[in-house]
Amino acid sequence: MEPLKDRIKILIAFRLLLTLIFLGATVWIHYRELKSALQPALYPFYGIIVIVCLLTIAYSFLLKRVRRLDVFAYFQLFADVSIITMVVFLTGGVESPLLFLYILAIIGGSMLLGRSGGFAVSSISSLSYGLLVDLQFYGLFPWSLAMAPSVEMPNSTTTLYNLFIAITAFFTVALLSGYLAERVRRMETELDAAKVDYERLESLSRNIIENIGSGIMTIDRDGRITSFNRAAERITGLSFEEVYLKGIEEVFPDFREMEGKRSLPRGEMVFRGKGGEELFLGFSISPLKEGGEERGAVIIFQDMTQLKKMEEEARRNDRLRALGELAAGMAHEIRNPLASISGSIQVLKEDLKGLNEEDRHLMDIILTEAERLNNLIADFLVFARPAPKKKGVSLKALAEETLELLCSRRDLKDVKVVKEMEDIRVFVDPEQMRQVFWNLFLNAIEAMDGRGILRVGIRRNGRGGAEITVSDTGKGIKREYGEKIFDPFFTTKDMGIGVGLSVVHRIIEGHNGSITFESKEGEGTTFRITL
Q: Which of 237, 304, 446, 447 is most buried, most CB within 10 Å of its CB?
């Protein structure tokens, strides 16, 4: 019903405008002839103008309250035909120059109500005009009321012919205007449906782009960013307002190497966020064409940082697995002969009473190095050891035992130990956890060169587990080393082997835990273990 209401509004406005123009022009013409606006002959025109204005006000008022708009439209159209008949009568009847107003009413009926409306208005117009011609032909009207001078009516044949022509014109216009109105209405319906489909498709496309997990941005031919979806904002931490119309090299410096490229199936780049963190982004470039002409490029990118870490973790696990197999073989090949050598030296040391101090010192060195080599092999065996033998133990007790053992073997008078430990019991392999604490404490002390603060924390993590933190105030770890510190044989120490942290990583991994670190050069390092 809304389109019909809109058409009725147009008709009301058009009717008022048309009345004011034609009747106003008629009054003005006759005023020029009569030289007075108060002639009685003009009163009917004034009345018609007042009636049309009042009807316009009434129609506008009723339009908001009428429920049957089709009946309301028929009422207006029949009222229009009555007013037109009166105007035609006042302006000369058969000789009236305003006979075409019937045509306008018929077109209005077709526009409002389609073909049926056009034929209804043409029928009532034919009856009204025919009645007017008959009354004029038989002289039943006081023609002195009309503005046009009385005319001599033609004979009946001519009058009938003129009436036939007028009625034929009325129905012909009704037929054509009804057909055109229905075609227009059908096209409007199809256009509205297409518009709805287009809007729905546009909304769907916009929602897909905004909710897709990959970052999507477009650039123009000058390399300036023209769109930036929600995922792109989330990945980069930059809003669309911050990057709009900026050169892509300003936001993504690595794109300088690809200047001029508008098509690239796959590429990688490093993006540095606001906080200085590095993100590895995988991206693809496709040309953006409009009407067959290239307008710029579409760039789709994803955050590959976690994937890179997983790949690095997978490579590390492969190396650890290979190292575990190597350690298992070394245990068979080296440990037994090493035990024999150590035992033989001890027997010789006890049996040979006449050894001088230098020889005894050399034997002590052999025993010490044999023990050191045995400990190294024990570290390697962690990689090949089966699943840890877990039992309920106190992490606090394990940490304090390890600290006491470390204090007995190292000079810690210049190291302040700060303990922030809750007494939490967890299911772990006690021996392996002692080795974790030992390696982390030893690394921290060596990083501080024997001077600084060693902070050990144990607390509940809110997920039914425990969080262990070991912090030092040493020289820190360089950013470029990253996760490499957990790789076997990676070390920054002159005399280091690079096994300690890889052993810690393997043990924590075997307990289904995780280990991460935070470090600033010159300020220290914090290792965080979650079990």
A: 447
Contacts of 125 (CB under 8 A, 6+ apart): 81, 84, 102, 105, 106, 170
Ramachandran angles phi, psi of 16, nearest 5°: -65, -45
DSSP state of 459: E
Report the C-alpha gap between 26 and 194 in whole angstroms.
46
Indicate whether 167 and 255 sit together in one domain: no
Instruction: Specify if 474 maps to a domain.
Output: yes
Domain end residue (candidates: 262, 288, 303): 303
**417 and 496, same structural domain?**
yes
CB 153 within 8 A of CB 143: no
Assigned token pair, 476: 């820190």
Residues 55 and 150 grouped into a single domain = yes
Residue 524 domain boundaries: 391-530
pLDDT-derived band at 325 (thresholds 50, 70, 90) equals low
Say how many CA atoms lie within 13 Å of 428 toward its Cβ: 28
- What CATH number does residue 237 fall under? 3.30.450.20
DSSP assigned state of 249: H
Question: 407 in a domain, yes or no?
Answer: yes
pTM, rounded to two decimals: 0.40
pLDDT digits (tens, 9 = 90+) for 393-441: 888 888 888 888 777 655 566 788 888 888 888 888 888 888 888 888 8
DSSP per residue over 144-160, as a string?
GGSSSPP-----HHHHH
| Whether residues 431 and 457 fall in one domain | yes
165-173 mean pLDDT: 85
Residue 346 CB neighbours (<10 A)? 14
DSSP strand pairing (466-471 vs 514-520): unpaired
Q: Is 412 helix (H, G, I), strand (E, B) or coil?
A: coil
Local structure of residue 529 (DSSP, 8 states)? E
**Which of 59-63, 75-79, 246-250, 441-445 is predicted with the least confidence, judged by mean pLDDT?**
59-63
Confidence class for position 469, pLDDT limits 50, 70, 90: very high
Taken in order 385, 391, 395, 400, the sign of the CA dihedral is: negative
The number of domains in the chain is: 4
Query: What is the residue-averaged pLDDT of the chain?
Result: 76
Helix axes 430-447, 357-384, angle to 10 degrees: 120
Are residues 375 and 417 located together in one domain of the fold?
Answer: no
- Other beta carbons within 10 angstroms of residue 119's beta carbon come to 19
Q: Are 388 and 511 in contact (CB under 8 A)?
A: yes
